[in-house]
């Protein structure tokens, strides 16, 4: 194993920058083999800093020339060690001129300046700018930028950067130039440039203030027919941010650019957002309903960063959730508001919580657990995590739950009033929320500083004599690597009570006036601040059924003893759609855990076991309830994922979980065959495709029904799926049919796969789907994946393609990945090592697959540990991967 230890960065060691940068002027001579960058910085010593040296950072750069205040700085005037350029005894005022050389064609990390399909792109968050020039590359150094791009006009006719285009022209030698000026101060991580053969859809848009702005979506030629949804989403985002938060676009133009080689989903560079093509390109032929929703969400997310991230940014990278958690919350609210109905908002909420439980709860319980505001890191790229984003969003949502929507808006207004144009901290945001609402939120800080998922145990007691109902809530939080003992969190717990007829009861909390505009409330938010608190409801006429943690009011695990009959009652009657769904999930989880234990005890599974309890009856009742939103029904009728079930087991048995989930699906398919067929037929969406919420919900339920029918795996089912595949007029229905065929014994399975590839061979995003559905198919083993890697359409260098096959298998096919012979782990190690040499950021994300290895049975643990040790011992391991495997192996 490697013995060298990379430097750990600690939040407690933060010091202000030695110098402030006022202006940045950059000139690029763009060439894919050797790009020269000339940079002029005007700087002044920061009186708040004790350090006297001028420190700049670089990575994989050639330093061609260095001049300070007009004079060349010789090698005796500076030191350059491990990418840190330090100039000693610099004066108070500095004009620094730096010339660097970089090789974009060789930059497979996709950080800094790189090429993709012959075009130039940049990615500077978190520390990519230092791959372009030497700079005090930290988010609290904000400056105004002027950028000149020079390039061959025939090869790179489009030259883009941040801000406004102020000049362009020919250079007389076959080259041309463009000068861009950004009127706002920004940190270096928001710098961007794009150059190449691109075309755009553009529209003029009139803001609420009356000012007209130019909106552009830039893509490679041949993709213009796939940009309308992204443009619509951008316009909706601009409109929503003004209506909801009073935040108007501050630039004269706003640009989105799509690139096929990208490590992330998108990047919010000021005025020049660079997107993975996955979150821009869509039309009914290539994009599913999920793709359309993803584009809307990500376009919104990056646009909303213009204020929450750009105008107000992070003081340091430990505060990353200040912008990401807040902006995820904003994009979630945007998508929910756009749906416009209560049921639609509930469906969006359920979808968001599913992501949290499937990805973030395991992270909180593993070796990479960290607070929403981490205390340390080795490689900042490893902290673009579901804890920072999704849990961070839940923390922001709790402010709104505690303060109300109006109170939250008041806090946002004060936040911008205080900090516009500044680099600030999570504490500054919390202070704005507290001060604007005259609330003490000091205890709420623990959500930022303590890792782990809190558990709440609820105990209830009804006193018929005095007609009171008591709920005692007790909180605890399991130890995490850096936090053994936890202080009590400030947790909002939304509660309702149902009477025997399933109606909400009016609530009166002992000692409080709960009237709301003269009418009694039916949901109250209980504020749990102590380890244990009892809340007493008065005037409760009969024993109620409690509905606790409504709308998932806090990111916690709720432990409450419901009988099966009570869960079925809540599933049928709860007015809170989230808890209605949650009751069904609890029923299903209870059944799946019991059956998993039976499998582990070598007991045969039989359909009779399905009828024990209320699960089958609950599914039947949901399928036959025509008043329910189809989108909600789809979620209610989807069994908990194998990953979520695994988290409920002390020792994970992936094969038992898989066997049980398949068994339950087949049993439900057989028992409810007629109901599934009725649901399939009654939720068709004939006519022209539309990704509107109603049509999307119907297709979702119809295709879920199809997947259950295919569990029967007979000729009739095969014909149904084949017919849908052959006649589909949209990608949602076509890929759904292909997916169920791939997981069946249908004789047309291989022919459909071949036809699909031939039909979409030149649509990269669709071929990603083709690889992914095969990677996650039940019968796909390691040998099959290795064969798919030899396919001419596969490349490890493209992150989307690597994710579509390798990540989909390792993370989305647990039964096959955890093969008892350890072949899945050997495959994983091969790919982590290979990706590490190409793109460390992507490699580190794949490495996270194994960080929960200690929860598995000893036989699997041994093989997983061996694979981790093999990766840890590999030569030239990046900081990204080394940090992950080191923490995973730590005792």
TrEMBL record:
Name of this chain's protein: Aminopeptidase N
Reaction(s) the record says it catalyses: Release of an N-terminal amino acid, Xaa-|-Yaa- from a peptide, amide or arylamide. Xaa is preferably Ala, but may be most amino acids including Pro (slow action). When a terminal hydrophobic residue is followed by a prolyl residue, the two may be released as an intact Xaa-Pro dipeptide
Keyword annotations of the record: Aminopeptidase, Hydrolase, Metal-binding, Metalloprotease, Protease, Zinc
Domain Peptidase M1 alanyl aminopeptidase Ig-like fold: 452-559
Domain of life per record: Bacteria
Enzyme Commission identifier(s): 3.4.11.2
SUPFAM superfamilies: Leukotriene A4 hydrolase N-terminal domain, Metalloproteases ('zincins'), catalytic domain
Matching InterPro entries: Aminopeptidase_N-like_N (IPR045357), Aminopeptidase_N-like_N_sf (IPR042097), PepN_Ig-like_sf (IPR038438), Peptidase_M1 (IPR001930), Peptidase_M1_dom (IPR014782), Peptidase_M1_pepN (IPR012779), Peptidase_M1_pepN_C (IPR024601), Peptidase_M1_pepN_C_sf (IPR037144)
Protein family membership: Belongs to the peptidase M1 family.
Domain (Peptidase M1 alanyl aminopeptidase C-terminal) ranges: 564-890
Residue intervals of the Aminopeptidase N-like N-terminal domain: 67-190
Broad class of enzyme this protein falls into: hydrolase
GO molecular function, one term: metallopeptidase activity
Domain Peptidase M1 membrane alanine aminopeptidase: 230-444
GO biological process, one term: proteolysis
Cofactor needs: Zn(2+)
Record Pfam families: DUF3458, DUF3458_C, Peptidase_M1, Peptidase_M1_N
Function (record text): Aminopeptidase N is involved in the degradation of intracellular peptides generated by protein breakdown during normal growth as well as in response to nutrient starvation.
